Amino acid sequence: MSYVTNTLSNLLHQTAFLNLTWGNYIMIVVALVFLYLAIKHGFEPLLLVPIAFGMLLVNIYPDIIARPYVDAMGIEHAGGLLHYFYLMDEWSILPSLIFMGVGAMTDFGPLIANPISFLLGAAAQLGIYVAYFLAIIMGFTGKQAAAISIIGGADGPTSIFLAGKLGQTTLMGPIAVAAYSYMSLVPIIQPPIMKALTTEKQRKIKMDQLRPVSKLEKILFPIVITIVVCMLLPTTAPLVGMLMLGNLFRESGVVKQLTETASNALMYIVVILLGTSVGASTSAEAFLNVATLKIVALGLVAFAFGTAGGVLLGLLMCKISGGKINPLIGSAGVSAVPMAARVSQKVGAEADPTNFLLMHAMGPNVAGVIGTAVAAGTFMAIFGV
After folding, report:
1. How far apart, in whole angstroms, are the C-alpha atoms of residue 136 and residue 61?
2. On the CB side of 122, how many CA atoms lie within 13 Å of its CA?
3. How far apart are the C-alpha atoms of 272 and 187, rounded to whole Å?
4. What is the b/e burial string over 169-181, where b = at least 16 CB atoms within 10 angstroms of the residue's CB?
5. What is the maximum alpha-carbon separation in the chain?
6. How much helix, strand and coil, in percent to the nearest 5, is found in the chain?
7. Residue 233 vs residues 72, 99, 303, 312, 370: alpha-carbon distances, Å
8. pLDDT tens-digit map of 51-86
């Protein structure tokens, strides 16, 4: 009888029910909310589903991301499954591969046809620098503040990349989750800011059709950008280089198989690995603390200022051009490709259903990806990384 009792007791104590804290249950609820938003409302499900599921797994079974260790008997124990996925985040492998996939999927034509979009993309980085100084004021170190501030670019891979390069791996989970969450919530966060800063008349502005871009221009663009940006900021090569390599695959027309692999199979494999590992970094112990709440708040401030910065420069350009530029496209200067451009299109169409801003907004959107990578490279240069 005692054997049966001991066996049942052992089985009971091996269940998660007796080993979880209240914090774990809170994070499980958060994970379920994220899954609901992704599946029911379609908030960036390709990112949010694996992130939320990784969050769910780690708070049920924390050892799934445990590091390898040697016990008192000298026996080596392997780490958890998602620990090895997470190492590829820390080593900047997955963020760089994501950038290659984005490059292979994206048409840089609107940016080439309207180079002024570079300025709008740069203006949308305002949130990064505002968040950086606010983080310093709130007590974070310089490197921590820099890693947190990149959330303002709405660029998850760059946030992970910079946090790893600056040695802020303890903050990588909250930073990545905040960045990807705000990317997913672009359709909710941006429109009120865009409408508050513009009039209905400005939102109705129709822009001239973009000029055709030649194949030679599209081939030269990624090569020239790589040379210029990486010569000025060599540390951006893993991101900018992979982004432009993916785009060169697309535009050269001679490596169709590589283009298809980078933009489809490889891209989605990397998203699964990155999403689940980022989600698994949000255990209750790591996530439910004051520092995380500060990071989430700073991320929202950064994102709001980034959106506002792009729209405000758009307003200035609208005035200078005599009303030929719709200021809404400035909001797409954050790096959430192509969702931010779609939001510009949606808000413009609400004012005038015949207005088509998507291609015009793609210019600042692509410029924002480059701008956020440049901002990350600037911080690495400042801190001598």
Report:
1. 35
2. 5
3. 23
4. eebbbbbbbbbbb
5. 89
6. 75, 0, 20
7. 47, 17, 24, 28, 12
8. 999 999 999 998 899 889 888 888 888 899 999 999
